[in-house]
TrEMBL record:
The keyword S-adenosyl-L-methionine applies. Belongs to the class I-like SAM-binding methyltransferase superfamily. gTMT family. The lineage of its organism: Eukaryota, Viridiplantae, Streptophyta, Embryophyta, Tracheophyta. This is Methyltransferase type 11 domain-containing protein. Residues 134-143 are annotated as: SAM motif I. Residues 135-233 form the Methyltransferase type domain.
Length: 353
């Protein structure tokens, strides 16, 4: 079981059976989209969000629908196997660079990823200021939500595209005595079923890479955040472009395309693209970090665990295309080693009213 925990959901992303369309991301927040002002406040941000949300995306509606259906189907089909092998957290672990990691350390590393993210964002642990209302955007089977609800005594709502995940997340909440604290439903992160300004912590752990329109994604995170609330995005990005670069190198694009084709992802963006989106909303206190070195042991562990009996038989049971998808795993390692892929955290605070 311990070695199985090394293999996380990212591995499962490789197991999709047919490549989805890869809509381009769009950034309607060009500097000309909004008049600049130094008097940023919650209401202003809210108006800007609504205006920008109406902007069009370069991806067609049919492309986006097809991608969403594919993601939902993929997680519907795979989540039971994932949980059986890897447990309730579907994200990378956080490791000290250069340390040896044994099989049993990986679950702890996943919890550490949550804790390091909270610490980086400066989330308060004290009674009056700790989060009370949390949204888990792209919640998987709710591992983060339940952890955060227990840690802070907070109310937490999770959304996922997968009905199977939402049902399982609710069942686990019930089984753990948390049904009055956490709830999960099927909903789109790009059109969230929540009124404005609801949550003092907006949490997105490794779901942003699935979003075909990063601008809409950020708009929605901002819209549902309460004034003074914190947004935490932990996600896969491509490297930032240099000052003289307009795009990645052809070989880099090719590497990412092969990963996208295997993992059900639309086009990627860079960490600085996220920063630009938040800056265009006059957000302050935007913080980022590159945690690629802290997740380096992860993919080799995923590959090793796929080679365990349980991993291997699960893989075989998934079919030939899944095996073909598994062969793409080394490309993630290559992407990190060559500096094309970055494991990024982006946090910011919505201006208080
Ligand atoms: N955050 C979870 C799961 C990560 S897996 C964890 O750390 O355990 C990616 C999750 O993103 C899946 O639950 C998937 O359904 C969700 N997701 C992807 N695109 C989404 C969208 N447009 N709206 C809501 N959820 C989405």
């Amino acid at each position: 079981m311990a070695s199985a925990l090394q293999t996380l959901p990212c591995f499962l992303r490789m197991c999709q059976l047919s490549p989805p369309p890869r809509p381009s991301i769009s950034f309607p927040y060009s500097s000309s989209s909004f008049s600049r002002t130094s008097q940023s406040n919650g209401r202003l941000v809210s108006r800007r969000v609504k205006a920008a949300a109406a902007s069009s995306s370069s991806a067609t509606a049919a492309d986006v629908r097809e991608l969403k259906d594919g993601i939902a189907e993929f997680y519907d089909e795979s989540s039971g196997i994932w949980e059986n092998i890897w447990g309730e957290h579907m994200h990378h672990g956080f490791y000290d660079p250069g340390t040896e990691v044994s099989g049993s350390d990986h679950r702890g590393a996943q919890i550490r990823m949550i804790e390091e993210s909270l610490r980086f964002a400066g989330i308060s642990e004290d009674g009056a200021n700790k989060p009370k209302r949390i949204v888990d955007v792209g919640c998987g089977i709710g591992g983060s939500s339940r952890y955060l609800a227990k840690k802070y005594g907070a109310q937490c709502q999770g959304i996922t595209l997968s009905p199977v995940q939402a049902d399982r997340a609710n069942a686990l909440a019930e089984a753990q005595g948390l049904a009055d604290k956490v709830s999960f439903r099927v909903a789109d992160a790009l059109n969230q079923p929540f009124p404005d300004e609801q949550f003092d912590l907006v949490w997105s752990m490794e779901s942003g890479e699935h979003m075909p329109d990063k601008s809409k994604f950020v708009n929605e995170l901002v819209r549902v955040a309460a004034p003074g609330g914190t947004i935490i995005i932990v996600t896969w990005c491509h490297r930032d472009l240099g000052p003289s670069e307009e795009s990645l190198q052809p070989w880099e694009k090719d590497l990412l395309k092969r990963i996208c084709d295997a993992y059900y992802l639309p086009d990627w963006c860079s960490t600085s693209d996220y920063v630009k989106l938040f800056q265009s909303l006059s957000f302050q206190e935007i913080k980022t970090d590159d945690w690629s070195k802290h997740v380096a042991p992860f993919w080799p562990a995923v590959i090793r665990s796929a080679m365990t009996w349980k991993g291997f038989t699960s893989l075989l049971g998934s079919g030939l295309k899944t095996i073909k998808g598994a062969l793409v795993m080394p490309l993630m390692i290559q992407g990190y080693q060559k500096g094309v892929i970055k494991f990024s955290i982006i946090t910011c605070r919505k201006p208080p009213q």
